[in-house]
Amino acid sequence: MLIMRDWYIIWVCSIVFEFLEITFRYWLPNFWECWWDHLLLDVFGMNLLGSLLGALFLQKFAVTRINWIYEPEQSALPNCGNKISGALSKLAPVAYEKYNWAIFSSPKKFLGVLTFVIVCLTIDCNNFFLKALYWIPADHEIMKFRIFMWGFAALATAKEWYEYTSNVNHNRVMAFAWMTFYTCGIEVLMTIKAGIHDKLFDFSVFPWFVYLIWVCFAVIIAGCLLHSYRN
Question: Of 48-52, 77-81, 85-89, 122-126, which gets the smallest average pLDDT?
Answer without folding.
Answer: 77-81
